TrEMBL record:
Pfam families per UniProt: HTH_18
Protein name: AraC family transcriptional regulator
Domain HTH araC/xylS-type: 182-280
GO molecular function terms listed in the Swiss-Prot or TrEMBL record: DNA-binding transcription factor activity; sequence-specific DNA binding
Entry-linked Gene3D superfamilies: Homeodomain-like
UniProt keyword Transcription present: yes
Superkingdom of this protein's organism: Bacteria
Alphabetical list of PROSITE patterns matching this protein: HTH_ARAC_FAMILY_1 (PS00041), HTH_ARAC_FAMILY_2 (PS01124)
Organism from which the protein derives: Edaphosphingomonas laterariae
Amino acid sequence: MLRNFVQAELHSGPARVRVQTYNYDTPSEQTRCPQHHTLTLMTSRRRSGWRGYFHRPQQPGRLFAFGDLIFVPAGVSIHGSGPGGPQTMVACSYARGSADALEMFEQGWDDRELARCGDLRSDRIADAMRRLGEEAVNPGFGSDVLVDALTTALPIDLARHFQDVVRRSVPVKGGLAPHQLRLIEEYVREWPAGGVRVSDLAALIGLSRGHFMRAFKQSVGKTVHGFVEGVRLDQAKTLLAEGEMPLKQIAARLGFANPASFSLAFRRMTGDTPGRYRTVRKGLN
């Protein structure tokens, strides 16, 4: 019997989707280190007793029980053991650097945070994985567009799911405390009159401009400009996906002089026009 039977496979941009049945040893114990960020949804009924841990240098990590939805960051070793037998799954993988939203997973995480990857509890992500599996096995009219939309949205949904984890994992020593980062993010989202200035952010938490810029970069891993740009982009995506506000009003709300400049900035960061992004997101809801 073949150990790994691939039922269907498809590619969309940087993403690869596979529907496969893997025949594990009985019982099973193995260690793997994927070189791509990999989301896996188990679609067959699995016997209880599956356990695992993410391998840390020179020592095992925190033991956890596997859920049906698992994420393994690229380059991180995972050890699993269980009763074995055949398991059918849908796997979606992305190469490193292929999606901006996945960059956060290339930073060092502690055992508690990694353990959460072994049992993701997100109906939204699980549903997207099921739909990808269905399209891989039985593609329909417009399948290429749907698969492109799903594989584009998955990294964003995954990053949002772990947003609270990332905040807790920010190094505090020599950097900024989590409550300071939350205060800064809230200030940026409120869009103060006159726009955001670094000196105002520094004053908000009682630091000099120079100290603030160094501490912020150490804590967040990006410049203040990059952070503000990301927050604004998230706001733009929310406004496009969740309402019918005209592009002209969205552009004005986010500080752009006209819709054309907003569209240019949005496309530069996402590769999509605001109109196409809105259409795709509404199609997923």
